[in-house]
Specification:
Length: 221
């Protein structure tokens, strides 16, 4: 259970508890109201009894006011608790958790590394190490085969993120299935770059949806 999960549960439990106390105070106030009505119906000519009745009435009225104030206060607190819980759940359904943030950053850097290696291949500066580098990157992308969006996200957000993870996995399989010197073949290279562009397109949509600051990622690289 994450911290936000805990906040949502505690806030909701508090809201329910406050609401129950509010109902209890309302019931007690209604009973006091009936008691006050009975006291007002009592008539006596005895001064002592009349004073005693007046004190009882004032005591009951004072309790009723106190119950009303507490009931209103607890009702407000119940609303705050329910609102906090609802907002926390909504926040989790529209924002990335820590795990998905880390996966997104890894995917971004892996794609950047592939693009860097392709640039070296096209310039002829990569040498024989390029094949091993591509194989390493392919295996890293393969880890996205088990990546799944957090269940707390809304269904549309989950589908979007899972589609991105799946495209990263497929790109890794694509890269691993090519021969070690595919980058020397203009046709194969163009085909692979086209597949890479599709993944970048998915990534762009994800970044836009979750308001990811790509400029900040570039600075950290």
């Amino acid at each position: 259970m994450t911290t936000l999960d805990l906040i949502a549960v505690i806030a909701l439990a508090s809201a329910i508890l406050f609401l129950l106390f509010t109902v209890l105070l309302v019931v007690l106030r209604v009973r006091l109201g009936r008691q006050l009505t009975k006291l007002k119906r009592v008539r006596t000519k005895n001064k002592k009894k009349r004073k005693r009745l007046m004190r009882q009435r004032r005591g009951v009225e004072k309790k009723r006011r106190k119950y009303l104030i507490w009931a209103l206060l607890l009702f407000v607190l119940a609303g705050v608790g329910a609102g906090t819980s609802a907002y926390t759940i909504y926040y989790q359904s529209t924002n990335l958790n820590q795990k998905d943030q880390e996966l997104m950053v890894k995917g971004y850097y892996y794609l950047g590394d592939i693009e860097d290696q392709l640039a070296l291949a096209e310039s002829g500066e990569g040498g024989e190490e390029l094949g091993n580098d591509f194989a390493t990157l392919a295996s890293r992308l393969g880890t996205f085969a088990v990546a799944r969006a957090d269940y707390r996200l809304g269904s549309d957000y989950q589908q979007l993120l899972n589609r991105y993870y799946s495209s990263l996995k497929d790109l890794g399989i694509n890269l691993a299935s090519r021969n070690s010197g595919f980058y020397t073949n203009a046709e194969e290279l163009a085909d692979f770059k086209e597949d890479l562009a599709k993944v970048r397109s998915n990534q762009k949509e994800v970044f836009k949806t979750f308001s990811v600051n790509e400029a900040s990622l570039k600075e950290q690289k």
